[in-house]
Amino acid sequence: MADLCVRAPAKINLHLEVLGLRPDGFHELAMVMQSIDLADSLRLRPTADGQISLQCDRAELPTDSSNLVVKAGEMLRARSGFTELGAQIVLEKRIPIGAGLAGGSSNGAAALIGLNELWGLGFKSQELHSMAAELGSDMPFCLDGGTQLCFGRGELLEALAFNSTEPPALLLLKHPGVSVSTPWAYGRCKELRGDFYLEAEADFEQRRQALRQAPLLGAIAGNGSWPPLRNDLQAVVEPEVETVRQGLALLRQTEQHLAVAMSGSGPSLFALFSNLDQARTAHADLAERFELYGFESWCCGFSDRGASLLP
Ligand SMILES: C[C@](O)(CO)[C@H](O)COP(=O)(O)OP(=O)(O)OC[C@H]1O[C@@H](n2ccc(N)nc2=O)[C@H](O)[C@@H]1O
Ligand SMILES: Nc1ncnc2c1ncn2[C@@H]1O[C@H](COP(=O)(O)OP(=O)(O)OP(=O)(O)O)[C@@H](O)[C@H]1O
């Protein structure tokens, strides 16, 4: 069988609200996530030796079973019962690591979709979703991608559609020397805000309903202007990480931005624009300063899909 290629796009958080703590120790969230046109790729080749081997162009990433690609492959194979299934996988990274862009989760989602096809297993979308939810909170979103409300730990999804006549675009910044640990960010959030967490399911549901009706959803659909974006982890990370404060200040200087925020647990930052031309102009205007402060930067569009097989 021929090699199979899968695209694994990054996400940003257009909204991240920490509602409270769950009995499983995770946080109850109300989020809007958005796939973007910055993507890794996986090339898969089948073998029949029971080995799942991974090669990656980034030396700092482990390629053993701690990598979400291998974890996803091992889970899929275990659920299939066919122990002889194997694959050689080549991962090309473009999404920065530990950036709040769900690069690892998207790679894992791409492995689930790609190996399900490569090995002819025929697992249905719902079965892939439940495996993804076991592997990580962001991974179910990364399977479908696009624009989605994400509740629970992040795994309960409600699809939205963005304004497709003029899809927004973004200017993305990440300092290569800095990454933020997701468990640390949630732990710090609990220390700082735990006393104010909601506890009752009725209160969680009231916040979910408020988000479903929020002006943000109107802006995403192309009806109405963009409100300021909310990310509760930004309030936790910003005071602690100097490059996050610097990056936000730089992005706020861009002309014509619709909103500026941190993605996920950071430290990636983004400014939204009405279209790709405006994002590129803002990028060109500030390119020297991004370089001076040592930031990597990208301009990209919104994407309407998550991990997907390439023709
Ligand atoms: C920050 C976000 O990227 C926003 O989309 C996600 O919430 C993080 O999702 P993720 O990286 O897939 O997270 P997981 O691998 O499931 O969990 C990593 C750690 O983050 C914390 N965590 C994660 C998700 C959640 N709803 N509550 C949490 O408290 C827990 O300490 C957990 O041990
Ligand atoms: N395929 C992978 N790509 C990137 N990181 C991976 C992968 N597999 C496992 N990891 C581990 O996951 C950790 C977080 O990486 P990732 O790039 O997904 O962070 P993130 O973008 O902050 O994730 P999220 O937004 O989901 O919290 C890293 O420490 C890395 O070692």
What features would you describe in this structure?
By secondary structure, the protein is of the alpha+beta class. It has helices at 68-80, 103-118, 125-135, 139-144, 182-193, 201-212, 215-221, 232-237, 242-252, 276-292; strands at 4-21, 27-47, 52-56, 86-92, 147-152, 156-160, 169-174, 259-262, 269-273, 296-301, 308-309. Strands 1, 2, 3, 4, 5, 6 and 11 form a seven-stranded mixed sheet that branches. β8 (259-262) and β9 form a beta hairpin. α1 crosses α3 (125-135). It is globular. The chain starts with a strand and ends with a strand. The mean pLDDT is 96. Bound molecules: 4-diphosphocytidyl-2-C-methyl-D-erythritol and adenosine-5'-triphosphate (ATP). Residues 61, 67-69, 97-105, 107, 138, 182, 264-265 line the site of adenosine-5'-triphosphate.
Characterize this entry briefly:
The chain is an alpha+beta fold.
Mean pLDDT: 96
- Note the run of SSEs as H and E: EEEHEHHHEEEHHHHHEEHEE
Tally of individual helices: 10
- Provide the structure class: alpha+beta
Q: Which fold does the CATH topology of the largest domain refer to?
A: Ribosomal Protein S5, domain 2
Helix amount, in percent? 25-40%
* First-residue to last-residue Cα separation: 14 Å
Domain count, please report it.
Answer: 2
Shape: globular
CATH class division of the largest domain: Alpha Beta
Radius of gyration: 19 Å
Uncertain stretches: none
Q: If classified by CATH, what would the architecture of the largest domain be?
A: 2-Layer Sandwich
Name the hetero compounds present. 4-diphosphocytidyl-2-C-methyl-D-erythritol, adenosine-5'-triphosphate
Taken as a percent bin, the fraction of beta residues is: 25-35%
How many strand units?
11
Largest sheet: 7 strands, mixed
